[in-house]
Amino acid sequence: MSLMKSLLGAAASLALSAGASFAEPALIFDLGGKFDKSFNEAAFGGATRWAEETGGSFREVELQSEAQREQALRRFAEAGLNPIVMAGFSFGSSLETVAPDFPDTKFVIIDMVVDQPNVRSVVFNEHEGSYLVGMMAAKASETGTVGFIGGMDIPLIRKFACGYVQGVKAVNPDAEVIQNMTGTTPAAWNDPVKGGELTKAQISQGADVVYAAAGGTGVGVLQTAADEGILSIGVDSNQNYLHPGQVLTSMMKRVDNAVYEAFSAGVDVETGFNVMGLANDGVSVAIDEFNEPLITDEMTAAVEEATAKIVAGEITVHDYMSDDSCPVM
Amino acid sequence: MDFLTIIQILDSTMRLATPLLLACLAGLFSERAGIFDIGLEGKMLAAAFLSAAVAAATGSVWLGFLAGVGASISLALIHGLASITFRGDQLISGVAINFLAAGLTVIVGQSWFGLGGRTPSLAGDARFNPLEWPLAETLADIPVAGPLYAELISGHSILVYVALLAVPTSWYILFRTRFGLRLRAVGENPGAVDTAGISVVRLRFTAVIICGLLCGIAGAYLATGLAAGFVKDMTAGRGFIALAALIFAKWRPWHALYACLLFGFLEAIGNRYQSIELAGFILPVQFMQALPYILTVVILAGFVGKAIPPRAGGAPYVKER
Fold it and tell me: Thinking of the domain B3-303, which architecture would CATH place it in?
């Protein structure tokens, strides 16, 4: 107890002496949880990397319910933490109300645009990354049928799906893409059993490569795909290591980079609208020792060519969220 | 829709119905003895966690299974202690168990594995692998009967067969043995049972322990049979669907099987066809996913007739003084 007290006391005096010149950054995870092996874990990875490199410390909180979003934001802002990074589109409406009350605090929101002077909005071009893994899926597929399993049915996930289908069709216009969404509530991010069942249903319809953009549900998808001997594609974090040799690749969304950059910039983080795409390594395709045997030279060449063309603007991948529709679906 | 598709949907139905069926039978024993149990969900969750955690730590699925069943029975005993011994409100005790399980699994999981309440992925002997029945491979080529045998009957985890066997066993125990007669009597008129010189408390505790055992099997199946590891809140409301199925089945074992198969079937259909075109209309995926719940309401409101619970259900037994 006394140790606790002295620790707390030390922390308090440190905080007081540090004052306004230095403020701890903070990170708020979404409902999927810090260890979802995917989106939130990527954010955590970026924060940890920053802490290791700079020796700094940061505060974090995992939400347990929807109602805590605004509360967590306010508590952190009142505690003087700056900048406050939140991982997830669901924070949009809460941040919209909280940000004006703390004009001196910088907020960084990932996956959502909030138009306030003290907010940095980071969005990713997931459709571009999904396009690339779609191309690889079509090349790896022997049946000509590939699958997509989304988490909660929201425009963001449809954006993944739409980019993926475009990539598949670019390689094989006759390919069939089976699409499933796990559910319509946030519980859909955490239902590996249902993810597994959906995968089995897709396999029985002929799919031999399945792309999971479903948070924790994706763990079940990758597991079932490995059990049944087909290939899967991970998302957000590099998930290749989960089932070596059976995960074709992962569509990496460099949430870690976004968090790392925000933390590094500290209180001087630039506000405004920030797009992370193929051009600035915001999204990429994961190739490491776990999936190397699966990648053919032809795949690598195709992906590199498409990357160059997308960056140069020669190929435009349609963004589902731009008009809420997908031309290929 | 060809024959193979139907087989595959039925196959999926079997897998999805199994946890429901086990939980439903668990509730059946408890409620037939006069102990309402809305803590099925919590018991399943605790069992799912501990079975996956112990299986991950020891590498043996059977040790995990025992630990899971043990966890479920301990929670059942807490429920029994609160509602039988201390005559507390059975609903409140059930809700408390659900909360307890939801919180404890994540906290213990976090401090044990440091993966945010998740257990490591299970592989090999740490999971219930599908049982291939003899000759499944060779018979698979026979038309109709072949795929039926190879896909639908063979190739499930052992707990699926345990769940199916539990149905006739439960029926036999409840309706053909002296113990079953007493168990049902204690849910209808505990006073009469007591007058006959049989301990109400002991009978009810036995029922609650059987309930814990079956919930434990259901939870272990979820985490080590269907999935490969525990994820927080992975029961996803299945305990409550099982309760609905129990009312739907009017507290009868065979009907519980049909009700659970129906719910499993609807979920399997929803997974397979996310949007169905029916006579020109396209049923959206949201409708398909809501179908089991809509059906529960419709069936309960109109089709099953009056579902009368055991008369002494929900009331603690107080001996006359």
Answer: Orthogonal Bundle (1.10)
